[in-house]
Amino acid sequence: MLHGKTIVLGVTGGIAAYKGVELLRLLTKAGADVHVIMTRSAQEFVTPLTFQTLSHNPVHTELFNLIAEQEIGHISLADRADLFVIAPATANVIGKLANGIADDMLTTTVMATRAPVLLAPAMNVNMYRNPMYQENEERLRRYGYLFVNAVKGELACGWEGEGKLQSPEIIFEEAVTALTPSDLVAERLLITAGPTREEIDPVRYISNYSSGKMGYAIARAARRRGAQVTLVSGPTALPAPWGVTFVPVESAGEMYDAVMARVGESSVVIKAAAVADYRPVARAGEKLKKQGERITLELVKNRDILTELGRNKNGALLVGFAAETTELLANARKKLMEKNVDLLVANDVTEAGAGFSVETNIVRLLHRNGRVEEPGILSKEAVANLILDRVAELRKDKES
Ligand code: CTP
What we know:
Rossmann fold, 5-stranded parallel β-sheet, 20 strands, 24% strand
């Protein structure tokens, strides 16, 4: 995801400096080449050796280090960076940057870069609320610096309030967003994901093996590309993706209501959910007791959300999914036409490397003009971006 990207990670002196280590791990795991610059006070909290070992690059601490200056130097580091992240960023470093003070390796390099700079503040709540700090942050925002807001919580100094460093996972997410071209800023995406549960009685339900991974990957990728995203999700084991409006539902009926209530404000609807086709005719109020050798459960059809959306698109672009076990293309083409969608993502859920729970997927993209794309086995994240590439193209065609 971050292969080929050079990130400079600035670590300043706060108790949260150790979380910079976790952030470094996430960035390198995603393939980024990370160069760490530590201020003098950061080194009081974590040793440069930790960052050096995990980044596989020398850690920069001194402004006037002749060897480093010859090999890399603060100017060439500033030029090579695709992104700067300072986490944690103290009130001190934010104050310096806001006022043009460049008196150490970190502030000098930041001032010399043209790359985007993402700051994750961490400090005592009273420092955070101090108008001097607030003005400095405001000024940097005006200059185009990006911020990951500090959060409320128990602070290391014993106070409770804002000033806690945002979690490394969310700082990572914002770093990826800063590095991703925002080609979907104008779009409002409504995405469904996961299975639905149709209750039989208070302790039992009918459901399916959908993990939600595909729909969540699309939601995450779309938000990174600048879209406003609403994710309507059946029950899954996944955490809600950062920065999306999350609407949890249980049954197909609830999913229907949640989608219909929001479709009017959406420019694109992507229906990745595995919606149950039938539900029990009635939900028993009490737990059903064991009876004879065989019992019959009577089911009634659920409304098809996608078909309903296809009947009245209201200008929205519609992307459907088809989970098949036989006759993949024929069945998928039928769904494309019958459900009146603009793009259909088909997958044979029995194929190795495709379908539920796994991290990869093998899809075919069916277009209305008969074109079929077969990209082969890809990570769900790559499939998500491929679908969004086509969404961006189709939306452009629609506008022109
Ligand atoms: N879908 C829906 N509402 C339903 C059932 C399905 O919106 N009640 C949507 C799914 O979200 C998916 C598409 O329809 O985008 C196809 O779902 P799939 O389960 O593959 O097909 P079905 O239409 O249910 O047909 P079948 O089960 O016969 O294959």
